[in-house]
Amino acid sequence: MDALYEVAVDAPLTTTLTYRQPVGRTEIKKIPAGCCVRVPLGGRLAIGYVLGPAEPLTEGEQSFVVKPIVEVLAETPFFPPNLIAFYRWIANYYLHPIGEVLRTALPLAPTSRSNRQLKAKTRLILLPGPLLRPVIEARPEIDGDEMVDGVEASMQGSLKKSERKALALFCGDLVRGNYQPVLRALLLERYPGAGSKLKHLVELGILEQSSQQIFRDPFEGLAEAHAAPDHLTAEQQQVLDILLPAVDARSFSPHLLFGVTGCGKTEVYLRAAQHALAANKTALVLVPEIALASQLEAHFHARFGSRLALLHSGLGDGERFDQWQKVLSGEARVVLGARSAVFAPLEHLGIVIVDEEHEPAYKQEDGLRYNGRDLAVLRAQMAGCPVVLGSATPSVVSYHHCMQGKYRLLTMDKRVAEQPLPSVEIVDLATARRSRPELAFSDQLISAVAETLEQGRQSLLFVNRRGFSSYMACRDCGAILQCRHCLVSMTLHRGQHTLLCHYCGFRQHPAALCPACGSARVSGGGIGSERIEEEVRQLFPEARVARLDSDTTGNRKHYQATLRAMRSGQVDILVGTQMIAKGLHFPRITLVGVVWADTGLGMPDYKAAERTFALLSQVTGRAGRGSDPGRVIIQTYQPHHYSIALARQHDYRGFYQQEIAVRQPLSYPPFSRLVIIRFSGRKEERVEQTAVRVGQFLCGHSLMKKSDILGPTPAPLGKLKDTIRWQLMVKSRSPAALHALCEAVLAERKKLCPHDVAVGFDIDPENMM
């Protein structure tokens, strides 16, 4: 009987399917787990991933027709078998089809929407063949010409003059290259007519020709790495004295590394990864954003060289494919990347590191809504190794885990070289002196930038919005120009001469008429990084100004070039969004200006204060990292808000205590777990009716005694991409009850949800919008 395989099909199916051996394939050559296959599904063909042998059919199933796999798309597995349990857990916890989980984890595998397959890039190499090898082995010190003579002697004949020339060139390159394979292309450059001669030498058995995979290099243009310090600080050594034995113990242990900005956490990560490699283990290092990965690349590449692989969407498809193959083959033993790198096919994990663990960017906001930080903890648990969550502003939930004894708290309270934390000044925009009221700058911030320029130092100006104007308003009727596909305001991007929706990408000419009254008197309001850059150039025309946001950094090479210019002193003032708030280490930056600190405080999200505190603390940490003291000026309309006041004092523990006191009475995390159930469709009435029906179903469920339900209500972003959105939130202190309620909705989905209304589950949401 043909072998049976368990296949996770790339389709919205809650279970895996069983298929039999492809027609014509022998029993001996079974398909290994991890291979990508094409299988029949209904009346079409779909992509699937082999998880291993299927269970034998029961008596009741013997009459079923088990369809064969149509095609094996790649004989080489895309993932090792040890990750299958990881994928199953993800599918179960996030209530997501396992085939779609694998599609997310393996973005470069073939999909049902495309037959395109990436392949390894190879080159032809030449090696000594069976007639040449004995000549070399008999006399290891032989030179190239003597090799040719030895081959002819062993052949008892002579080569043609052209063949002798080609062989002599090969032998010379072989000796000079310390007997490493010779590149065929390089030899042909020196002797263009050698192609047919080399082919004949291979046929004679003098040479052997083979293909060798070459990896596209994603490390071109890296910034200069800091040299490894001769001595660690006392706090770095204390932390490593705990982490390194944890690596040796080869058992799961979670640690929260709470270290102020500039304390040297990166060096701790590097040494912990080095220790794992010395123990014949591997290391996984996650960062929340591609920008932050780009900043760490140089340091990790300087220590690990070819043993390092990068995995993030900022690489080209070919580069990502090569990096994945390096990990699969075992050549790369350290992986650095953004949240998707948590799926890296590493085996024998020795340590998992999550930098800036508090960042909401670890949460995927569409499709499989996983949290990369949480899955990193799970991978460490499954691998039996320590995990380190590092941050200067830990998430409230992670810090609470430390207080409850779930995580071990490691602290680093001092900067390297005893550099002081920068002084922080708060400017109340409601009362501050502003000689240029049309600009976003107080006199205090303008004077500080001017003073920094005179000193030959660098300034960093942060605003958490891109574009020129964050909204466009009619001066006659007050209407706000909104995207025709989303209920959100359009943002003016003056450099691109367009109005842009940041949610769906819809563009409109900036000279638009008011849709409410038809007036042409429409003007911009609010601020963005593009406007701040223009105002800086007005105020300081002699300054060299650069801007970093997602509009200016179309690719990582441009981003790296800007960082190099900043590092070499070619930039006086750097303006940017969140991507400049974290990880940057420029000793010449002595001034940080936060143009408007209130951006996120008005969001309808229980984490608004936490995010504001973290962002202000992180951007504050960019100042004073060299020999000169740092200065920070924060402009705000809410100077007494605890997130701003405590960020000024660098007081995370004080913030934690105040935030916990706010959340506990409301039973928000860490005192409960959350699920947001979202409903979306084209017809508002149908979406609302479905949300109400599901809400009534949950209210009548017996497990609601352990849970609370909020809603249903229209989502804060009630329309996106022409789709109406409603949602309800379920809170519970019991994760099991919460999960059971979601499964109950799924079980009754056909009754509760019409075909034209989609329902999705956001487990442990980071974003309430």
Outline the fold blueprint.
Elements: E1 4-9, E2 17-20, E3 36-41, E4 44-53, E5 71-74, H1 84-93, H2 98-105, E6 121-128, H3 133-138, H4 144-155, H5 161-176, E7 182-183, H6 184-190, H7 195-203, E8 207-214, H8 234-249, E9 253-259, H9 265-278, E10 282-286, H10 290-304, E11 308-311, H11 317-329, E12 334-337, E13 349-355, H12 372-383, E14 386-391, H13 396-403, E15 408-412, E16 423-428, H14 443-454, E17 458-462, E18 471-474, E19 491-493, E20 498-500, E21 507-508, E22 522-525, H15 529-539, E23 545-548, H16 556-567, E24 573-576, E25 589-594, H17 608-620, E26 631-636, H18 642-648, H19 652-666, E27 673-681, H20 684-699, E28 707-720, E29 723-732, H21 735-747, H22 749-752, E30 758-763
Parallel strand pairs: 9-14, 9-15, 10-12, 10-13, 11-12, 13-14, 16-26, 17-24, 17-25, 23-24, 25-26
Antiparallel strand pairs: 1-2, 1-4, 3-4, 3-5, 6-7, 6-8, 18-22, 19-20, 20-21, 27-29, 27-30, 28-29
Helix pairs in contact: 4-5, 5-7, 8-9, 17-18, 18-19
Could you describe the 3D structure shown?
With 769 residues, the protein is α/β, with parallel strands linked by helices. The protein has 22 helices and 30 strands. A seven-stranded parallel sheet has the order 11-12-10-13-14-9-15, sandwiched between helices. Helix 5 (161-176) crosses helix 7 (195-203) and helix 8 packs parallel to helix 9 (265-278).
